[in-house]
Write a structure and sequence with these properties.
single chain; mainly alpha; 6 helices; 79% helix; globular
């Protein structure tokens, strides 16, 4: 499948753009808000809830990029793959360890490690 192949190529790029743990936390909150408000929308069918879900979830995620990661969200380049990756990140954070993903793709120097180096100097 083309989408799966594209996602498998996209995921390592996504990982590199989400090294900062605070950015990942903002994405977690964004995904949780998005899922929660999507459920509320399905129960109420109020379009305002759907719009609120989009504004809050993207707002939190994008703020994480601007404030902590200091980069542009990948959503602007590929919205569908970025959304898929956001929810993969969400589930990895629930059941696993994102640092394993960083290591798998050779992104071993995380922001936390850089901060530790600065403290040691």
């Amino acid at each position: 499948m083309k989408l799966v192949d594209d996602f498998n190529t996209f995921w390592p790029k996504y990982i590199v753009e989400h090294q900062d743990k605070n950015n990942r936390r903002m994405h977690f909150v964004a995904s949780l808000l998005g899922l929660s408000l999507a459920i509320v929308f399905l129960l109420t069918m109020k379009i305002s809830i759907a719009l609120l879900a989009l504004v809050l979830s993207y707002g939190f995620a994008w703020a994480g990029h601007f404030i902590f990661e200091k980069n542009k969200p990948l959503t602007w380049k590929n919205p569908l793959l970025s959304l898929m990756a956001d929810y993969r990140l969400f589930f990895v954070m629930i059941v696993g360890d994102f640092n394993e993903e960083l290591n798998k793709f050779k992104v071993v120097e995380t922001v936390e490690e850089k901060e530790e180096e600065l403290v040691e100097v």
